[in-house]
Amino acid sequence: MRAITVEGGRRLRGELTVQGAKNSVLPILAACVLCGGVCRIRRCPRLDDVETCGAILRHLGCRVCRQGEDLLVDSSGMDRWDIPDDLMRRMRSSVIFLGAILARCGRAELSYPGGCELGPRPIDLHLLALRRLGAEIDESGGTLRCRGEGLRGTEIVLSLPSVGATENAMLAACGARGTTVICNAAREPEIVDLQRFLQKMGAEVRGAGTSTITVEGGRRLRGCCHRCIGDRIVAATYLCAAAAAGGDVCLKGVDYRHLSTVIAALQQAGCRIVSRDRMIRLTGDGALRGICPVRTAPYPGFPTDAQAVLMAALLRSEGTTMFVENVFQSRYRHVSELARMGADIRLEGRVAVVCGVPRLRGAAVRATDLRCGAALVVAGLQAEGTTRVEEIRHIKRGYGDLAGDLARLGAEIRETEI
Ligand code: EPU
Fold first, then answer.
1. Taking CB atoms and a 6 Å cutoff, what residues make up the pocket around ligand 1?
2. What is the pLDDT of residue 116?
3. What pLDDT, on a 0 to 100 scale, did the predictor assign at position 269?
4. I need a labelling partner for 198 at 20 to 30 A (CA). Which of 30, 254, 381, 412 fits?
5. pLDDT per position as a tens digit, 390-403
6. CA separation, residue 246 to residues 9, 332, 382 (Å)
7. Which protein residue has the closest C-alpha to ligand 1 atom 36?
8. Residue 372, φ and ψ in degrees, nearest 5
């Protein structure tokens, strides 16, 4: 079993280029099946979730090969429309293949998706969107059997702006005849990136980044080349790491506007942050203060994916900070692990209150999900002694080389076999 070992107390210094965004590349890889041609995905991060996508695509009959930072997907030989249960369970995003396969093949068969345990993660809105487009979905026996030979464009109103349901609706709508309007769509930058990819394929999609997305379906799609946006959550993680450890860090390859709420929170905590174009520079001495309540919300609100790493950065702050998790029902599994390191966090339902403590101590802790793992590393950087983060397979799902990147910035951190 592999672990990440951190010796706390080192300042971070230097420059780093942020990886391509996981939550952009996963739906884009699913979208590759729409065209029946060759797509080149540039700046495709090396992640376990990307591997899982590759395995799904190969199972469907596509050819997938890596060329350095690029991933090539040739979907011309696609001859299956099912996804085996073991691949579905490996990650939540596997469900995005549903809309894409349905649009390409007129049918799809798969089971319910797995992914990080963040409380109940239903897919009712995904299914509602597909049914609105005319798909017939049988959910008996844990398998989703979908038929949709003649999908028709329509209005789809989402009761909440689900990222995944918006993506599934966009992909299925590309294969539907006529106009689809998705109302109350998610506005995340990753949705805008998916729209750009679909447009390059020849799809008529507009409105991403706003709450109303329109798709003129039935266009003939072709292979294309696309470079993914930088990962704003990975960038948020490195900013929080530098804020907690102190130092001078410059991140490149990420749009600072995608991080405005995270940057504002860290500035309020006492960090100096300068950003322009695709560069963010943070300087600080590691002494932070408590900030106004942090309430997670769909984009452009504070990202739920950055809640754990910001909390970890504030553990030694002067004063208190309240967190309110509004997106997922149960996304505080990092709290009990952080407590092992001496953190003082009071938890009640969706609210967590961090009371800053003078020092944290290294401990053996477990990454219970992806962002929990990243938060434990951020805590380890500022703790006295050694922190050993176990079960790092969760971290590998979303960070190409968390330990290596932080080591390059001067942290004493490495991956070890235990
Ligand atoms: N929801 C429903 N019904 C649905 C779909 C969602 O009730 O059919 C609820 C969820 O239970 C949740 C809320 O809506 O409470 C938001 O879920 P959403 O569908 O927006 O999230 P997602 O598509 O499953 C993506 C990211 C997550 C990120 C969320 C929110 C990907 C691959 N995953 O998940 O990323 O937390 O949006 O921004 O894009 C991560 O990277 O660590 C991660 C978990």
1. 23, 26, 92-93, 116, 120-126, 160, 162-165, 186, 233, 304-305, 327-328, 370-371, 398
2. 56
3. 98
4. 254
5. 999 999 999 999 99
6. 9, 25, 9
7. 305
8. -60, -45
